[in-house]
Structure to design on (259 residues):
């Protein structure tokens, strides 16, 4: 096998899974290194719709186009593994008003140990094989995070903010969080503010409100994993030093409202 062929091999998705402390069994997180997956993603971009291709080319910066292409191709392949269909068949649709991704459905029971798909991405016994799959995507410099679940879910990954950027975000947070974080100094405060901010973003993505909900009304606190409000949890996810980022996932703990 040539070096070029090795670079373009299809990703082994299990190699990119990341543990989410306390998460339910139907939730799966993939953290994807942009540089490693970009050659494969561009070679596999024929699964994208015309609208997605146009959106990718509409980006003004090459880095933004690369991030979008890699994240959307990877999303289609990860969902196809879970749903039991081809990547180009996955109906990736977003609500026109909120921008929130709509749930998708696949063929119940299509994911099996002998199918060539991810054998760990099985339907949750709690929710049943016909439950819709929810997903959330976040991307930052060098990293794409994809989470799928059979319940509302949100993910956010952000590069570590500079001290100046962290001070801007600090002013947007809940008063109790601002007071707690203001006691820190320098890079330590910047890292802690970034960590708090990704938890806010993960929650508002899960709630499908985005930042139309005022972050100043969302008290995050210092715990690595915590319940928020009624029926929601949010958790930090470990990142590698080379990623220079912070990552969080939020999910609905009570799946009863699923249709």
């Amino acid at each position: 096998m040539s070096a070029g062929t090795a670079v373009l091999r299809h990703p082994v998705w299990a190699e990119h899974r990341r543990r989410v402390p306390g998460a339910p069994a139907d939730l799966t997180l993939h953290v994807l290194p942009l540089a490693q997956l970009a050659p494969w993603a561009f070679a596999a971009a024929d699964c994208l719709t015309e609208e997605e291709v146009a959106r990718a080319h509409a980006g003004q910066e090459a880095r933004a186009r690369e991030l979008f292409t890699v994240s959307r191709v990877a999303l289609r392949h990860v969902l196809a593994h879970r749903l039991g269909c081809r990547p180009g068949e996955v109906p990736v649709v977003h609500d026109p008003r909120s921008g929130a991704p709509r749930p998708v459905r696949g063929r119940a029971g299509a994911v099996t140990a002998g199918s060539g798909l991810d054998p760990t991405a099985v339907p949750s016994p709690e929710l049943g094989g016909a439950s819709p799959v929810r997903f959330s995507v976040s991307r930052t410099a060098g990293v794409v995070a994809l989470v799928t679940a059979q319940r509302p879910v949100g993910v956010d990954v952000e590069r570590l903010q500079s001290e100046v950027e962290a001070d801007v975000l600090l002013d947007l947070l809940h008063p109790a969080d601002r007071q707690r974080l203001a006691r820190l100094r320098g890079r330590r405060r910047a890292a802690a503010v970034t960590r708090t901010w990704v938890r806010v973003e993960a929650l508002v993505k899960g709630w499908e409100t985005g930042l139309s909900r005022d972050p100043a009304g969302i008290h995050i606190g210092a715990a690595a994993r915590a319940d928020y409000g009624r029926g929601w949890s949010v958790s930090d996810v470990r990142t590698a030093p080379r990623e220079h980022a912070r990552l969080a996932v939020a999910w609905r703990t009570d799946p009863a409202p699923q249709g």
